[in-house]
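User: Tubulin tyrosine ligase-like family, member 11, Sander lucioperca:
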Amino acid sequence: MSDHYVKVSIQLEEMKSFGEDAEKEGVDTEEQVPVCSPSASVSPPDPSSTTIAGRDASNTSITCKHRGKSRSKLGKDDKNSCGKHTSDVSLHGSVVSAHVGRNLNRLTHDRTLHVKGTGKILQGKSETNGNNVTVHPSKNIQETRREDGFKHARKGRPVTVDISKAKTSLEALKLSIKQLKWKEFPLGRRAACDIYWHGVSFHDNDNIVSGQVNKFPGMIEMLRKINLSRAVRTMQELFPEEYDFYPRSWILPEECQQFSTQIRMVKENDATINPTFIVKPDGGSQGDGIYLIRDPSDLKLMVGTQAKQAVVQEYIQRPLLIDKLKFDIRLYVLLKSLEPLEIYIAKEGLTRFCTEPYQEPSQKNLSHVFMHLTNYSLNVHSGNFVHSDSQSTGSKRTLSSVLYRLAAKGVDIKKVWSDIIALVIKTAIAVVPELRVYYQCDIPPGKPGPTCFQILGFDILLTKNLKPVLLEVNSNPSMRIEHEQEVAPGVFEYVPSPVDEEVKVGVIRDTLRLMDPATARKSPDEGALPSLCLKQVYPKYTKQFNYLRLVERIASLFIRFLGVKGNMRMGPTAFRTFIRTCKLSNSNFSMASVDILYIDITRRWSGTMPDSREAGMGLQAFVEAFFYLAGRRFKSLVLREQVVSLLQLCEAQLESQSGVEERRSVSCSRAMPRAVRTLGLTNPQLNSPAPLRRASSQDYRLHQRLKPRTLRANVEN
Ligand code: ADP
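Assistant: Predicted structure for Tubulin tyrosine ligase-like family, member 11:
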């Protein structure tokens, strides 16, 4: 082994064990991980600052079809093939850098917080950093449920897994269960299992009342391209620099006009820059229906008579290339729990390569699927596709092999990896608030139900400047470990794919180890098994990222005032109750204005949410209303500070009122039998203030819940 190779190996090993030592030793890792500076300057995103401009172009599209369908290039003749290209400047605006000792004014002290109306008693350490008070609950509903499950968990018997709904992850799952010496139930089981493995959604098996399910309710909906873009955009409004890893996106059809106007303005300012955009259908996956355009007039807005739901996004024109090919990274991330937030990242991932050498987009090559799209499902149909028998060659390679290559070229892969970790944590922070709303809707506190965890597939592109860019998050990343191969002319067979097997079996096996009910309180039994391939990144890096969790605090208010169990939308009465309870109305902002605000925002949002389950105000609309209220109240501040100030105000109101309620209930309870007192603490209905209860029953009549629709979404299976 050459010296150089030894150095590279050491560097990669360091990268792999990144944070491991710190975790073991309880060392503050602020110096090692990317830190998002809470003191970063805040300014609203300026559309005109994007360096996107260009010339007119004819309508060009890429058709992405699968086996059995014809694949054709539909690109028209090039009208403007020699335009200058923009670099992905808007993504280079800021570099996430390490800040040590940023949180000097942070105080830590023990707190107990009663969250009324939810029956939750949060106990644990809270951090005050001048901006916000966040409670890290030491125990909450999800944990309590999990512990209840553990009581019934095995004593000396193997963990039981219902694999009847595993679909295409079945092979990898079976191998994992075998390695763990657990017991699988291929046809399901009459008695309860410890773990239910679903191939698609939380609802694959209905009526599960205990154990753990490998899907969260609402994850499919949340990670559709439009919803993800919306969630990230909300965070971009609050933290533009921290969330610059997601390309500028517009939602179609509603922002079509805005998109056209902004691009026209940019082009008028600088005619030398030639932008490209990628259009992705909302529920699409595997490259289906994706096409590139260079001018807003090339958008295809209709399918028959219906407006297409899609996202149009700034195209990253200068990706990092290896062997002249564009590639992307598939990273597996385990969302182990929402409350408390627990995130693990797989140390090994996959890279998927294009099969045609990359050229920056021009009118001529816009329709070249094999050059621009890295999807395996598309490139496998190219004559150039190479099935990998080793991990470092071919069209699908391990992430570590690519990082070796980069390290060998002198790339600081530690920095790349820590930027990737930051991207994952920030993305999770963006989607968790709405997931919490779905969760309490499907598994309301007090109702028997399972706990959830989920493996997600993050698709990440590295720019030429090594900045990770988030392309999308898959709620159901393909866990297939075999691929189709033509073994004789016209004869196709499934053959094992060593690269997929290496990565995916490890991810599933170690997810199961982490979810093993018997080892929940200690580290998984190593035994003969390899060390865990999943690294905890949250709560490990709480200190660096916790300040970003503002929308989650808004979601907590939202959930608290939703009122009716199983509701996802807030009715007008509950919204009024929120305003009254938090004392947000006054002579300048009457209750009549509150009603108008409610109607105005709710009406606008209901037009943009075709999949909505119910009428009323959803979380995203509530967040908009909250931003508006914050802006009215704290005019002189920037948005982020406005929101922090209003949150503090609301939380303080609720805390002071819960103090009054508690004192009242203590004085009343002196006369009550013990059993009734205990019930009062755990039953949200008994604990909630009377007006809230009234609101709840009225809203319930007003907002009849509809059955969730089956959604086509980013499912790769
Ligand atoms: P799908 O769910 O259909 O796979 P993606 O968002 O993953 O949709 O996009 C498909 C492919 O298109 C990606 O794997 C990547 O190669 C390419 N791609 C997507 N978005 C961008 C972008 N903004 N810039 C450059 N390439 C992109």
